[in-house]
Write a structure and sequence with these properties.
Layout lengths: L1 H18 L6 H8 L3 H13 L7 E8 L5 E5 L12 H11 L7 E6 L2 E3 L2 E3 L2 E5 L7 H13 L4 E3 L2 E4 L40 E7 L9 E5 L6 E4 L2 E3 L6 E6 L5 E9 L5 E6 L3 H15 L3 E2 L3 E3 L7 E7 L3 H10 L3 H16 L4 H11 L26 H10 L6 H6 L9 H4 L15 E8 L2 E9 L5 E9 L7 H13 L2
Parallel strand pairs: 5-7, 6-8, 7-16, 8-17, 11-14, 12-14
Antiparallel strand pairs: 1-2, 1-21, 3-6, 3-18, 4-5, 9-10, 9-15, 13-14, 19-20, 20-21
Helix pairs in contact: 3-13, 4-8, 5-6, 8-9
């Protein structure tokens, strides 16, 4: 008799588990059901049936922006790789620690004296973490020296990046990413080639010749003699497709450009990371001095300005609130890692990943984040060891709404379907139609096998929801965006 009872109980349990959707645990289904079946059923159907997710993991969390109540979750407490959604945590910490009005500086100093039109001594270019430094800013620093009557420097030009430590790459950066713009080395003295502010990179512009078979031309921006280009690019017949690639070997600043570009085709632009951003910035400043007619008699090298050195000129960066636009809209990795080091420098006196991450782990609990659920190895999310839960992402996004700097944070997030580069950011070519366009404000993320999207959504009914979608173990991570957009559409249509 007892055996028959056990059989009946087991049969009932099997039936119950067969009815519960495979993509939602019991607690998730209860929480989701509390808000009505439409949202729950639609998301469950998407997760169950979309072939892109076959064999993968989908962590999803949806909660009210008004009271923080979870409406829906699927493996919401399972740690997953966040890719650039990790920047949401870095950004909140940076605004809290450094503030909206924080600025970075770049200084020119001397260790000698000025006699007549001659500076007798060394000149130091000292960086303090400004990732927005441009060639024109170095030009202005050189002009400032000229305005002081300096026409000759009887000494060396020395680059000083001692504001941070000497570690250029975060712990888990893949070796293959070193030459890519998103994997550029981190230095307190660095330079961006344009107003996307990809610090530590140069822009390679490849232009076809007038006829097929001839060598294409390659120019480097900004102009410098620190980076050497080996040009193997050829012009192909008009009407074809460009097939340009480049390579920079580890420890080298020789960049080889190969492939073909059709005659009459538009120029191809590639962003290449340099080896040692410090020396690169110094070299461009040397060009600025030359253009101002200032003669340098000594060599150029790395070093540290003595404490007795006198400041001759200072350039201040844009404020943190303005920096956050290119940082978050364009998902800039070098900005994230620099902010980690800057937080370490400010709070613990050491500009390193170790100290910066310690600061972040001490700051996040102020926003209700349980850091014991996380593994944070860098500030950008480029590491495949970084781990967060979808519920903790939405938890962060809920609590920071009360912070005085939240408007700057929200303004920095990409806006779905907004065509302007510095508004739509990485979402400018996604979700271009109603009700998604303009109503999804969220951070994107992508590394190999991972895609993510987390942020805020205004629904058709006027409600404001917070969501996080972390997709892992995808065969094709680019396809993950399709799933995210479908899920966002379900939310926006509520």
């Amino acid at each position: 008799m007892r055996k028959n009872v056990r059989i009946v109980v087991v049969s009932v349990l099997i039936l119950v588990f067969a009815i519960v959707p495979l993509v939602a645990d019991h607690d998730s289904a209860v929480k989701a059901g509390a808000s009505g079946g439409s949202l729950t059923d639609s998301l469950n159907t998407l997760l169950n049936k979309d072939p892109i997710l076959s064999g993968g993991l989908a962590g999803i969390s949806v909660r009210s922006a008004d009271n923080g109540k979870i409406f829906y979750e699927h493996i919401g407490n399972t740690r997953l790789r966040p890719a650039s959604n990790l920047k949401l945590f870095t950004a909140a910490s940076a605004l809290s620690v450094l503030g909206e009005n924080y600025k970075f500086s770049t200084e020119v100093l001397m260790d000698g004296k000025i006699k007549g039109h001659e500076l007798q001594g060394n000149v130091y270019l000292r960086g303090k973490g400004d990732v927005t430094l441009l060639e024109k800013d170095l030009d202005n620093l050189a002009k400032n020296l000229k305005q002081k009557g300096i026409y000759t420097i009887q000494g060396s030009l020395i680059s000083d990046d001692s504001w941070y430590d000497k570690e250029r790459y975060s712990l888990d950066l893949p070796w293959s990413d070193e030459m890519e713009y998103y994997g550029a080395g981190i230095s307190a003295l660095t330079l961006s080639p344009n107003e996307d502010y990809d610090a530590g990179t140069v822009i390679l512009t490849i232009v076809p010749a007038s006829a097929a078979g001839k060598q294409a031309s390659v120019t480097v921006t900004p102009k410098n003699d620190y980076v050497k280009v080996v040009n193997k690019a050829k012009t192909s017949a008009a009407g074809g497709k460009s097939n340009i690639s480049y390579k920079r070997d580890h420890g080298s600043n020789t960049i080889t450009v190969e492939g073909t570009i059709p005659a009459k085709a538009s120029a191809v632009k590639e962003w290449a990371a340099v080896w040692n951003p410090t020396g690169y910035t110094r070299n461009v400043f040397k060009q600025s001095l030359k253009e101002q007619g200032i003669k340098l008699t000594g060599s150029e090298k790395d070093g540290t300005a003595p404490k007795t050195a006198k400041v001759l000129a200072v350039h201040k960066s844009m404020s943190m609130s303005d920096l956050f636009v290119p940082f978050m809209k364009l998902s800039n990795n070098t900005h994230a890692e620099t902010l980690v080091k800057e937080m370490g420098k400010k709070k613990k006196g050491e500009g390193s990943w170790k100290k910066g991450l310690e600061v972040i782990n001490g700051e996040l609990p102020k926003f209700g984040v349980n850091t014991k659920t996380m593994v944070m190895r860098d500030g950008s999310g480029v590491s495949h060891v970084d781990l967060v839960t979808a519920n903790e992402v939405t938890n962060l996004l809920y609590h920071i709404q009360d912070e005085e700097w939240f408007s700057s944070y929200l303004h920095s997030l990409p806006v779905a379907g907004a065509s302007d580069r510095m508004t739509g950011g990485t979402l400018r070519n996604r979700m271009k139609t109603a009700p998604l366009k303009g109503n999804i404000i969220a951070k994107t993320g992508s590394i190999s096998t991972v895609s993510s999207l987390s942020g805020y959504v205004k629904t058709k009914s006027g409600k404001k929801l917070i969501f996080s979608i972390l997709l892992n173990n995808l065969i094709d991570d680019s396809k993950g965006k399709e799933v995210e957009d479908k899920a966002a559409a379900i939310l926006a249509n509520q």
